[in-house]
């Protein structure tokens, strides 16, 4: 690579080392000096006059220099094309730089040439158009017309003043002073600095000097003789700028009104000026073609010299620029392939490009160091990431990562199952929207300095209530903003198992304490009734009623105690391969006979469904659930619920479980505290013991299954979903709660 760079540098330096390089500098400087001299000579700024011979010699010299520049530029362009075809390094960049310099030089020159040509043409042509020629030709007539307009204006205003003086003849005869004042006011109003009433012999009768005028001639005899009483006579001098007017006054016996007024001096001087301008304009018209040719030739020569000089400078600059860039191209290609050990040779005198090479070398050294460090760090982070993902995937508790802005960044599969939402919908969402139940805990954790906080919450998702143990921990970060890790541990089944165990112990104690005295009480009541029944003659009915009540209530207490005993001493299931479909059909058949008013929807698959379960216990559980459904229907008036319906659906499509759903249109389950109905002695039915659903839940739990309470998906009422594993499941006392919890999550599918 370094050898290739040396060759490229030698090729780029050849023009400046050969005689052609110095020839190019000399030709460019000579051409620019010749262009400047041409401009100065044609502009008349030198002692050398722009005669025909001088102009010819100047143009010949410029032509020779232009030809020399064309040859130099063509030779360098040929060399550039040859390098391009040979595929030399950075040849494409070389061509683009030269092309850019050429465009920068050519486009302004062409633009200026076009603008200058149009400007010169448009600047000269309007002065020699037909309209302007007519205007210049008629300048004298225009000046004379202006003078005539001034005369007509003066005559019209003279007639106005004469009419006023004729009407004031009576005032003239009565009071000369008052007449003089009147005449003065009219002269001032009409703008006459001088106004006189002159007799036919030339004597002045009245004279008004509103403004002093010098060298105002008096009217001659000819003027007085030519004066008329119809139109005012306009008099203008051969010299000066005072116009005069004369008009006979009919009321004053033929006397004449003589007025004078100053006008713009140009009204008299402009005709002579216009004649001189017309003569000069005609001379310019004859020289127009020569002026255009001279200016166009001068501009063309100067533009060519400047253009070729700029192109040559561009070629020379590109040659010097490409060499260090060529080295950088080779080096960057090596870096792009992953070689961070490449170094660019730096030479003195390369200026900013040399500094760029030094910076590039520093950059590659730093990149090499950082690349090695990042590679090691990336490997370590990747190993940690895979380990963390494996840990989170295997954790049964839900784990949520929250950043400083309270947005979710990490969720594990257990969180998705617990919240019933995919990770794509959870990531980036505020934790306060996804899980508002933990918002106060997150807020308190963010504002405080604690490292760990925990709390039990209750959440409800898709009609399921769960009890969650929440733990919030913060990372060890500097500053006020910290990321949080939220752990969600579903302890619903654990709490339920603890309560069930506690209630079983209570039931066992109650059954033991109550059952012992029941038999003596019952026997004593029966003996009293046999021994004293015949003796008592008064209130015999009351006596019999009381003894019957004692015996009946003792029987009721015995049945309740037996239920307590059954719940406390649930027998372990004897699991064998049984037909679950046939078992359910038998339960439905018996319930149809017992409740003919209810419409049963039997959706049990035909044939057999063999599964490992205790036929007696499962039959008892299904019977209990269907019986509860009939009682829920009976609790709602018929006019409110309509036809009583119970649907029994057995689904065998799940890969691991057989799912049984019993749906009714009765009163349904309460929204709050629904799952607590699975706890012993929790009931919403009057007279119920609260042991039916817990016994069913215990039976299913012992089989490795579970149950949940939900709303009727098609309308009013409730639904009980139960599931039993398709394979034999051995449940120990220590693992029954955890197994039931995991099974309930899977069965929710």
Automatic annotation (TrEMBL):
Domain spans labelled Histidine kinase: 509-728
Query: Does the record's keyword annotation contain Cell membrane?
Result: yes
Record-listed E.C. numbers: 2.7.13.3
What InterPro entries does UniProt report for this protein, alphabetically? HAMP_dom, HATPase_C_sf, HATPase_dom, His_kinase_dom, HisK_dim/P_dom, HisK_dim/P_sf, NtrY, NtrY-like_N
A GO molecular-function term, please?
phosphorelay sensor kinase activity
Reaction catalyzed:
ATP + protein L-histidine = ADP + protein N-phospho-L-histidine
What are the protein's UniProt keywords? Answer: ATP-binding, Cell membrane, Kinase, Membrane, Nucleotide-binding, Phosphoprotein, Transferase, Transmembrane, Transmembrane helix, Two-component regulatory system
Classification via SUPFAM superfamilies: ATPase domain of HSP90 chaperone/DNA topoisomerase II/histidine kinase (SSF55874), HAMP domain-like (SSF158472), Homodimeric domain of signal transducing histidine kinase (SSF47384), PYP-like sensor domain (PAS domain) (SSF55785)
Q: What is this protein called?
A: histidine kinase
How does the protein associate with the membrane?
Multi-pass membrane protein
PROSITE patterns xrefs: HAMP, HIS_KIN, PAS
Q: Does the keyword Glycosyltransferase apply?
A: no
Q: Which GO terms describe its biological process?
A: regulation of DNA-templated transcription
List the CDD domains.
HAMP (cd06225), HisKA (cd00082), PAS (cd00130)
Subcellular localization, as worded in the UniProt entry? Cell membrane
One GO CC term, this protein: plasma membrane
Domain (PAS) spans 384-456
What coarse category fits the chief subcellular location reported for this protein? membrane
Which source organism does the UniProt entry give? Answer: Microvirga mediterraneensis
**Chain ranges passing through the membrane:** 20-42, 54-76, 97-120, 293-315
